[in-house]
C-alpha cells in the first residue's frame, strides 16, 4: 500500500503504529481532536495530520483507513471511507498485519504491565545484540516508541480491551497475568477468557506466571514456560517492577539470549512514562506518579511505595478511570486505597464519553478521604494543603488526565 489514513492518530497505540508505517515508506495522513507532541513528531517525519475530524481530511486515493477503538462508525472520516469503498481496519487488526512482515512476532498481553514488560524486553534484546522491531504504547526514557528492526523479531503490546490481541500470530506470547478487567466492553467474562485461550492457540510458544486464572486458561499449551513464583526482588528491583523484569528476561532467553546476559541487561530496567515516575524531590516532599487504575495495580503501587519510603506519610491522589471500572470494583478500590495515610479522589476520567452514577464523591466517602475538583491547580492545591510534619510522598495514581496536576505540586 502507498497511502494509509489514521483516524485518532495521536493515541498511545496509534501514533507509534503510524510512525512505523512511515518507516516503511508509506504515505501517512491522519487526524485527532487535539494537537500533541506525538502528532508534532509525526508531522516532522512527513505525515500530514489534522487536529480535528473532518471528511475532507481523508484523501480520495487512500487505500486503507486505520481507526482507534475510540472512533465509532459515525465518525465523518469513516463515513466518507465507507462511501468511497475504502477498506477500514481497527488499530489492533492493522497491527496484526504489520506483524506478519516479521519472522517472529512476540506479543505481550495480559491485564497489567504490558508497556513496562514490552519496554524491558526490547531493552534486553538490544543489549544482547538483537535488532527487534517493536511498538510500545508509552513513552520510554532512552528508547523510541517504535522501530522497524531487521525483520526478524517484532515485539508489541497486545491489547485485550477490544479483543484484537487474538488477531496476532505469535512465535511467543507473554502473559504475566489475567484478571476480569474490560469484560464489560467485550460482552462478559466468558468472552474475555475465550480470547486468552485464542491467544494461546495462535502462539507457537507461551510464557506466563502461574496463577489460578492463567493456569486454568493456558496450561494445556504444548510449548509453554511457566514461572511458578512471582519474585519480590530481581535485577535490583522490587515489587511489581521485579516481576516485570523477570518475565521480560525469561522471554529474551526463549528468543535466544544467553541467560546471564539477559539477567544482567534486566538491571537497566527502562523508565516508562507514568510508571513509578519520580517528578519531584524537594525538602520533605516527594511526588511520584503511577498509571495504576485497577485495584490490583493500586495495591501493587502502594505496597512498593511503602517499601521504598518507609518513613514517609503516604498521601494519594487517585483518579478513577471509567465509570464502568469504578462501579465494578468499587469495594476493592475502597479497601485498597485505605493502605494510604490520606486519600484524595479526583473526578472520574470518563473515557469515550462514558457516563455513570457512582463517582469521586462516593469513593471518597467510602475511603474516608477527600474529593477534589476544579482546575488542575485547584486540585493540586487541595492535595498539598495541610501536609503533615515530616516527610511526605504524594502518589498521583491514574491513567487519565490526573497527571496534569503534577506541574502544580
Number of E strands: 20
Quote the average pLDDT.
Answer: 94
Main β sheet profile: 7 strands, mixed
Strand order of the largest sheet: 8-7-9-6-10-11-12
> Strand fraction band?
15-25%
Shape field = globular
SS-based class = alpha/beta
Nearest-angstrom radius of gyration? 21 Å
Question: Level of helix content?
Answer: 25-40%
Uncertain runs? none
Number of helices: 15
What is the first-to-last residue Cα distance? 48 Å
Element layout with pairings:
Elements: E1 3-7, H1 14-23, E2 27-31, H2 37-45, E3 48-50, E4 64-67, H3 76-83, E5 88-90, H4 91-99, E6 104-108, H5 114-127, E7 133-135, E8 146-147, E9 153-157, E10 170-175, H6 183-186, H7 189-201, E11 203-209, H8 212-218, E12 224-227, E13 233-234, E14 237-238, H9 239-254, H10 259-265, E15 277-282, E16 285-290, H11 295-308, E17 313-318, H12 323-328, H13 330-337, E18 342-345, H14 360-367, E19 370-371, H15 376-384, E20 392-397
Parallel strand pairs: 1-2, 1-4, 2-3, 4-5, 6-9, 6-10, 7-9, 10-11, 11-12, 16-20, 17-18, 17-20, 18-19
Antiparallel strand pairs: 7-8, 13-14, 15-16
Q: How would you explain this protein's 3D organization?
A:
With 409 residues, the protein is of the alpha/beta class. Helix content is 35%, strand content 21%. The chain contains 15 helices and 20 strands. The strands form four sheets. Strands 8-7-9-6-10-11-12 form a seven-stranded mixed sheet, with helices on both faces. Strands 15-16-20-17-18-19 form a six-stranded mixed sheet, covered by helices on one side. It is globular and about 65 Å long. The relative contact order is 0.09. The model has no long low-confidence stretch (mean pLDDT 94).
